[in-house]
Specification:
- α1 (about 10-45) runs antiparallel to α2 (about 50-100).
- β9, α16 (about 505-515) and β10 form a beta-alpha-beta unit.
- The chain folds into 2 domains: about 1-180 and about 235-310, ABC transporter transmembrane region fold, CATH 1.20.1560.10; about 335-575, P-loop containing nucleotide triphosphate hydrolases (Rossmann fold, 3-Layer(aba) Sandwich).
- The protein is an alpha/beta fold and about 575 residues long.
- It has helices spanning about 10-45, 50-100, 100-105, 110-135, 135-150, 155-200, 200-205, 210-265, 270-310, 375-380, 405-410, 425-430, 435-445, 450-455, 475-485, 505-515, 530, 550-560, 560-575; strands at about 335-340, 350-355, 360-365, 390-395, 395, 410-415, 420-425, 465, 490-495, 520-525, 535-540, 545-550.
- The strands form 3 sheets. Strands 6-9-10-3-11-12 form a 6-stranded mixed sheet, sandwiched between helices.
- It is built from 19 helices and 12 strands.
- The longest helix is centred in the middle third of the chain and has 54 residues, at about 210-265.
Length: about 575
C-alpha cells in the first residue's frame, strides 16, 4: 500500500483542512444536546418563551456552522479524491504501457482493465471517505461518551458497556468478510475475461452455434461471483440490526435508570433527553463507522491489486540509453545462440538460434505452427528478453539500446493486425505523426491499400471504428503494413502479415517491397513458401530450433524440413 502514498502528497493541504472542518462540524453537533437540555430545563420548565427562542436560535446557528463546515470538507474531499484517482489511473496506465509481453501475459487484459477502472474507483472512494468520515465518526462516539460522563457519571456506565459490545460485533463481521473481498475481485476478473472473449469472438461463437454453451460458462462464473457477494452481503446485513438492537437496549437502559434519577432529583428531564440524544449520536456514528470500515476494506483489497501492478518491475527495462548507427560491414540484425522461454515454462520457445542479416537484405522465416516464428520477431524490438544468448541491432545488444530509440528504427507488423479508432490517416501516421504526404502515399501504394483507401468518398480521412471492425481482415493487414512503412524504419518485420491476402495481392505486395524498400532490412515471417523464397536468406524453424539456414536453392538441397514444406504446399496447389 506504500506505493499509493506518493499520490496523496499533492493533496496534503486537503487531507489536513478537510478533516479539520469535519471535526468542527462534529464538535458543534455534540453541543446540540446540551442546548436542548437547557431549553427544556430552563425555558420549557419556567415557561420562558424568549429563552426558548434564544436557545432555538443557538441551535440554528450551530446547524449553519456545521453545514458550512461540512460543505467545505466535502469540497476538499472531492478535490483530493478526484485528483488522486486521476493521477492514480494515469500512473497505472503508464505502468501498463511499460510492461513487456511477459507482464501482459501474467496479468491479462481484462484484469488490468478492472484494476484501472473498478479498483481505482474503490481506492478513490476510500480517500474521499477518509477525509469526510475518518475523523467525524470516531470523534462523535468518543465525544458523546465524554459529554455523557460530564452529565452523570453513573448513568454513563451504560455507554461504557454498550461500546465494547458494538465493537465486538463490528470486528466479527469484518474479520469474516475481509478475505472474501479479495476472492470477489478475482471472480469479477473471471467474469470480465469471459465477457471480453465473447465480445471479441462473437462471430466465431455464432458460427459454431456455441451461444448457449458460452452463456452457461458466463452464468457459472457470475453465479460464483454472486455466491461470494451474497455471503458478504448477508454478514454485512447483520451489522445494522445488531448494532441498532444493542443501541436501543442502551437507550431503554438509560430511560429506565434515568427515570429513577429524575424522580430523586439527581438528574433533570433535559439531561435525560441529552443522554438519549447522545446515545442516538453514537448509534448513527457507529453505523457510519461500520460503512466507513467496509469501504476501507474494499479500498484496501483494491489497493493491493493496484500496488501489484505498480510494484511490478517490467522484465524488459528501458535499456542503458545507448544507440548505434547502421554501418558497413556490421549486420543490421544478428542473433548469437539465442534461447527464449516464456515465464517459468520448462520448454524453450527458441533454442540456440544464430543468424546474421546484413543491412538492406531480406530474411525469410518459415516453419510450422508453434515453431517460434513470432517469438523471434518479438525479440528484435525487445518485446521480450532472451533467456540466453544475444540479439544485436547494428552491432549493439538490444538490452543496451535505449528502448524508445530502438523501436523507432523498427517497423513491426504483428500477426494479429491492431487498428485504432480514428481515421485511415491517423492509423497510417500512428508511428510517425509528421510523416510527409509523399511518404504516406508511398506506404499506401506499397502495402496495396490504395484500392480501398482512395475509393471511398472521404478517402484517407475515412472514419475507422474501434478495432477496424468496418474493414475486412485483408484491409486491416494492409493498413498495418502501411503504418509500419510510413515511418520509414531501418528494419521492417512482417510477422505473417499477409495471411489474409489473396495470392495476387500477396505477390504484388512482395514485388513492391523488393522494388521500393531498397536499403531497408526486411524480415518476412510466413508459412507460405512463395512469401519467403525470394529472400536473401531463409531461416527454417522446427520446434524452436534451427532446421535450416540459407537461400532457397541451398535449402532445397540441404534441408529436408524445408523440402517437405515446399512439397506439401505444391501438392496443395495442384489439388
Amino acid at each position: 500500500m506504500k506505493s499509493l502514498l506518493p499520490f496523496l502528497k499533492p493533496y496534503r493541504k486537503e487531507l489536513f483542512i478537510g478533516p479539520l472542518f469535519k471535526w468542527v462540524e462534529a464538535f458543534f453537533e455534540l453541543l446540540v444536546p446540551l442546548v436542548v437540555a437547557r431549553l427544556i430545563d430552563v425555558g420549557v420548565k419556567n415557561g420562558d418563551a424568549s429563552y426558548v427562542w434564544r436557545q432555538g436560535g443557538i441551535m440554528v446557528l450551530l446547524g449553519l456552522v456545521g453545514l458550512c463546515s461540512s460543505l467545505c470538507c466535502q469540497y476538499m474531499a472531492s478535490k483530493a479524491s478526484q485528483g488522486f484517482g486521476t493521477d492514480l489511473r494515469g500512473a497505472i496506465f503508464r505502468k501498463v504501457m511499460s510492461f513487456s509481453g511477459a507482464e501482459l501475459d501474467y496479468f491479462t487484459a481484462p484484469s488490468l482493465v478492472t484494476r484501472l477502472t473498478g479498483d481505482s474507483y474503490q481506492v478513490q472512494q476510500g480517500v474521499a471517505m477518509l477525509i469526510r468520515m475518518a475523523v467525524r465518526a470516531p470523534f462523535l462516539v468518543v465525544g458523546a461518551v465524554v459529554m455523557a460522563m460530564t452529565i452523570d457519571m453513573q448513568l454513563s456506565l451504560v455507554f461504557i458497556c454498550v461500546t465494547p459490545v458494538l465493537a465486538l460485533i463490528i470486528w466479527f463481521v469484518l474479520f469474516k468478510n475481509v478475505p472474501r473481498y479479495r476472492e470477489v475481485n478475482k471472480k469479477l476478473d473471471r467474469v470480465s475475461t469471459i465477457t471480453r472473449e465473447n465480445l471479441l469472438g462473437a462471430r466465431v461463437v455464432r458460427a459454431f452455434s456455441k451461444e448457449e454453451e458460452q452463456e452457461r460458462k458466463l452464468e457459472a462464473a457470475a453465479k460464483e461471483h454472486e455466491r461470494l457477494s451474497v455471503g458478504i452481503g448477508k454478514l454485512n446485513a447483520l451489522l445494522s440490526p445488531l448494532t441498532s438492537a444493542v443501541m436501543n437496549l442502551g437507550i431503554a437502559a438509560i430511560i429506565w435508570f434515568g427515570a429513577g434519577n429524575v424522580d430523586t432529583g439527581s438528574l433533570t428531564q433535559g439531561e435525560l433527553i441529552a443522554f438519549v440524544n447522545y446515545m442516538g449520536q453514537i448509534l448513527l456514528a457507529l453505523i457510519a463507522l461500520v460503512n466507513l470500515v467496509l469501504i476501507f476494506i474494499k479500498a484496501a483489497a483494491s489497493g493491493r491489486r493496484i500496488c501489484e501492478v505498480l510494484d511490478t518491475t517490467p522484465e524488459v527495462d528501458s535499456g542503458r540509453g545507448e544507440s548505434a548507427e547502421a554501418a558497413d560491414g556490421i549486420p543490421a540484425i544478428e542473433m548469437r545462440g539465442v534461447s527464449m522461454r516464456y515465464g517459468r515454462s520448462g520448454d524453450n520457445a527458441l533454442d540456440d538460434i544464430s543468424i546474421s542479416v546484413p543491412r538492406g537484405e531480406t530474411l525469410g522465416v518459415i516453419g510450422g505452427t508453434g515453431s517460434g516464428k513470432s517469438t523471434l520477431a518479438g525479440l528484435i524490438p525487445r518485446m521480450y528478453d532472451v533467456s540466453g544468448g544475444e540479439v544485436l541491432v547494428n552491432g549493439l545488444d538490444v538490452r543496451a539500446w535505449d528502448a524508445e530509440k530502438l523501436r523507432q528504427r523498427i517497423g513491426l507488423v504483428p500477426q494479429s493486425p491492431t487498428i485504432l479508432s480514428g481515421t485511415i490517416l491517423s492509423n497510417v501516421t500512428l508511428k510517425k505523426p509528421d510523416a510527409s504526404e509523399e511518404d504516406i502515399k508511398a506506404a499506401i501504394e506499397i502495402s496495396q491499400s490504395a484500392d480501398f483507401v482512395y475509393s471511398g468518398e472521404n478517402g484517407i480521412m475515412r472514419e475507422i471504428t474501434a478495432g477496424g471492425r468496418n474493414l475486412s481482415g485483408g484491409q486491416r493487414q494492409r493498413l498495418t503494413i502501411a503504418r509500419a512503412i510510413a515511418a520509414k524504419p531501418e528494419i521492417l518485420i512482417l510477422d505473417d502479415s499477409a495471411s489474409a491476402l489473396d495470392m495476387r495481392t500477396d505477390k504484388a505486395l512482395r514485388r513492391a517491397l523488393r522494388e521500393r524498400t531498397r536499403g531497408m532490412t526486411v524480415v518476412i515471417i510466413s508459412q507460405r513458401v512463395s512469401a519467403v523464397e525470394g529472400a536473401d536468406r531463409i531461416l527454417v524453424l522446427s520446434g524452436g530450433k534451427c532446421a535450416g539456414y540459407g537461400t532457397h536453392g541451398e535449402l532445397m538441397k540441404n534441408c529436408a524440413e524445408y523440402r517437405e514444406i515446399v512439397k506439401s504446399q505444391e501438392a496443395g496447389e495442384n489439388e
